[in-house]
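Figure 2 data, in text form.
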Amino acid sequence: MRMIGSIPRGADDAERFSDYLVTQKIDNMVEESSAGGGWQVWVEQDDDLDRARLELDAFLKNPGDPKYDAQSAAQRIRRQEDKKAEKRRSQFVDYRTHWGQARQWVAPVTLTLIALSCILSLATNSLFVGARDNRGSAPLGGPRWNLLDPLLFTSVMGPRAQQFQREHPGASVEDPATLVRYWGAHLRGGEVWRLVTPVFLHLGILHLLFNMFWLRDLGGMIELQRGSRVLLLVVLATAVLSNVAQYFWSGPGVAAGMSGVVYGLFGYIWIKQRFEPHLGLGLRQETVWIMMAWLFICMTGYVGSIANAAHVMGLVVGAAYGYAPVGYRRMLRGRRA
C-alpha cells in the first residue's frame, strides 16, 4: 500500500474522496496524519497509483463537485466485496490440516494421476528395477524392461534404440544434433506418448510416496480452487517440457518421476498467491523454503543422480503459466494508458 498524498481538510472530505475511489475500483484507505494538518490517502495496488494521483489532484481543485457524493454507491460496492470475500473464505481449505476431510478427495484428475502413477510403477516393475542413474547406467535387461522401456522418454534398450545404434554407429549422446535425430526416430514411429508417460514411472517406493504426497497436496488444491481443466493443463505443460529439458540435459536414459510436475504445481500456486491471492491458493512460508531448499540440495549431487533439469523446467513452466494472465492484463492496461 502506497501513500499518494493528503487532503488538508476535515474527515468528511477524506471520506467523500475515499468513497469516490471505491466507485472507480481503486482500493484505498484514508487516515489522519500523525503530524496533524490533514488526512493521508493510501492506495493498495501499485497499478492504480497514477490514476489515483490524478483523481486526488482533481478533487483538491474542486472538492465540491457532485460526482464526489458517492457514499451510497460505495457502500453497495463494499457490501458486494464483503460477500465475495466471505464466499472465498468458505471455499478456502488449509490442506496441511484437512487431509482426511471427505471434500479433499473430490478431485478426479488428481486421483487419476495418483492411480496411474501407482499402477504403472508397479506394473512395469520400475519400483524395483534398481535404476537410479538418469543416464541409464544401472543394469539393464531382463523381462521387466520389456514393459518399462516403451514408457521412457526414449528407448534405452528396445528395438528403437538398437535400430538407431545400427544406423548411427558411434553416435555421441553429447551431440545435440544426435539427440534431435534420436527423438525424431521415436516421433516418426508415432510414439508421442513418451512425452508424458515418464512422469508416471517411479524408481523406488520412497520416490513414489514423496511425489504422490505433494501431488495430492498441491494438485488437489489447484483442482478444487481452479478446476480440473486448469490442473490438467498445468500438468501436461510441465510434464512435456520437463521431460524434454531433462532429455536434452542428460541424454537418453532412465529419467522418470512426477517431480518436475510437482515443481510446476508449486510454481503455479506460488505465483498465484503473490499476484492473485483472492483465488484462494496459498502456501506457508515454511513450505516454500522446503521446496526451494530441496531443489538446491538435489543440484549438489549429494543425494544421488537427480533429474534437476526437469525440476527447474517444471518450476519455470508452472510459474510462467500462473503469471501469464496477470502479465496479459497489465499489458492491456499499459496499452490503454
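Caption note: Strands lie at 2-7, 28-32, 39-43.
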